[in-house]
Amino acid sequence: MKTILLIVFAVAALTSSVAPAFAQEQKKHAAGFITDTEGECHLINPSGERARVKLGMFVYERDTIKTAGRSSVKMVFSNGVEARVRQNSELSIMEVPPAERGMSSRVKMVVGGLFSRVIKQKTKFNVHTPVVTIAVRGTEFDTDVAAGNGATEVRVFKGVVALENDYGSRELKANTKSTVGAGEPPPAPAPLSSEDKRPEDDVAGFFLKIEMNNIEIAEGDVASAVVVVKDADGFDAKNFKNKISLNVSEPALLSKAGQNKWSSSVEEPASGGALKFDIKSAAHGPARLVAAAKGAQPVSVDINILRPKERTLRINLKEGSSEREIKIKLKNK
Asked: Is the pTM here over 0.90, yes or no?
């Protein structure tokens, strides 16, 4: 009976070391994160649950962003594409094949306005509207989708975009625009007018930096880190008082330094231009850590949670009135 008991416990321990890896594959893919938000903006997940958009919040495939009047959202996709969703807009994040994740992003613009900047030349970014698909390779462009008929106006400020639907295709170069209606091919481009101005960048006077001794953490260990605010010249901005929002993806958890209260996010005002925090995980796998604050450029870091090389399984056995402990060491190959 004792031998059977030991085998059951050993098998259970080994199985638990494999299960998190399988569970990790089933989790949603983080398509990007929020870098700024103004006004009334909501994020709706595939189950219909609604939440206010917050700084540093992760946006997942199949999520939808909605903005009200005088509201806007900025985000950075996992492949580096920067996007600004304007007021009275609805944008959905589409799924991409696993092999293209980190290189390709796809969105569906239901209504409203979107300014996009594709920095890397080989990055794939597609915007789908009710009447046309916009394929982008390294460019800056603006999209407006009308309510009702979905008529789409595309203005290109830099680079080249390709417009395509069931009726034809068209290429737009820098400083041109085109408006596509329902049931018609993309028309010939026209030059931008003096009113077609490129949206101005909001220049952040500060930037955030995550300082960690190691971006690899052993499963179950607690690591200390700090978010430091720097000014435009690279010096510590000790007078920066805005709140810093920290968010981390599974399987990691965060806590304000020394508090031992764990969750997926931490939001605290900067103290002396910095925010100290702890990070840990009860399972192994990759995690992404994001820091964002009003008036500062955000930062993200990829962290690897490692399985411990060795685990000790303790079993207490009772034999009549006596009790003894058996230790079994399990090694990960």
From this structure: no
